[in-house]
Amino acid sequence: MKDWNLHIRDVKIKDQGLYSCQINTHPVKIKTVYLTVQVPAKILNNSSTDAVVAREGTTVTLTCNVDGLPIPNVTWYRITTTSKGETKKTVGMRGEVLIIHNVSRHCGDTYECWAFNGVPPAISKYIKVSVEFPPEITMPNVAIGQDLGKETILECSITANPQPVVTWKKNGVDIKTTVRAGRYRVEPYPETEFTMSLGLKIQVIEPADFGIYTCVATNKVGADSKEMLLYDYTLRRMQTKGQQATKTTISTTLLPPYPGTYHPKVSQKAPHYEGYEQEQEDRRITKVVKDNQQSGTHKPIGLGVPSTENKGTALIGWLSTCLLCVLVNLSLVRDVLFLNGRDYTL
User: Fold this and answer.
1) 176 phi, psi to nearest 5 deg
2) What is the DSSP string of 215-251?
3) Burial of residue 173 (number of CB atoms within 10 Å: 0-12, 13-18, 19+)
4) Which residue among 43, 52, 171, 322 has its CA within the 20 to 30 Å range from the CA of 345?
5) Residue spans of beta strands (DSSP E) within 73-219
6) 91-129: per-residue pLDDT in tens?
7) 115 phi, psi to nearest 5 deg
8) pTM above 0.70, yes or no
9) What share of the chain is helix, strand, coil (3-state, %, to 5)?
10) Cα angle: 116, vertex 122, 126; to 5 degrees
């Protein structure tokens, strides 16, 4: 018995079909064979997405056109790289198209379309998605005090994509264009992929250095700015001490307790430590600056000079304190006379 074989070299998709082997006997014998041609998955790069740059809030569509027999299944993954390594998570539904609605800056990453139809090898394609958004500036402090002759650094943090152009201004004037620009130094510090800190270093502070500083960031999507106040802490400390000198400290010596005697409560003094005055003053100025930014007004900082309203309040407080002293002293005199066995009406 002989074997008759049909050899097909360089098989094409068109070779798929039904083949029959026939022997001319009586009766005729026929054997049929169906040839199935399998083709590994293939990504059609010409009709697939390579990279996407989109504005925040828009819709992003990623396309991964594939071919093969049988028809490949396409799975989408998001690949995120951190300091701990690379993570890979499945996103969306299976198919040749991945749609990201209302894309945000947090959607910017590398996406992989992975195609496989059971015929090795599987194939994949990486698509980079970059999301653009306008600059956003944050400041750790909106007011800072420093002594004359000292060195200080004003700092602002900027988050943006693409990378913005950042400048510092002093009282509305670009520092780079001023005559005193040589005394300033701008120092950038990268933080994350889209965030950087920009420090303005003032080497030796002079009286002309005090004022309002503005951090301005601009890219093709938008712009943002924030203000910071640099004030003379030497002057502020002198004004604060002058105000404290006008206050009256009242100390009262109490008699040993006995029935029927009134003993006023002694109020505790506010905590005090090195730098406490500057910390409280910075908090006050920071609150005024934030209120001005939120309301759009320009309420004066005050620099420690009491207003007319504060003077009136201080006068009322002083008169109340004096009246309290008189009442306490009268009560003490009455109690002493009572102990001595005398009856006086006060």
Assistant:
1) -65, -20
2) EEEE-SS-EEEEEEEEEEHHHHHHHHHHHHHTSPP--
3) exposed
4) 322
5) 73-82, 85-90, 97-100, 109-116, 123-138, 143-146, 152-161, 165-170, 173-174, 184-190, 195-202, 211-218
6) 999 999 999 999 999 999 999 999 999 999 999 999 999
7) -115, 135
8) no
9) 25, 40, 40
10) 100
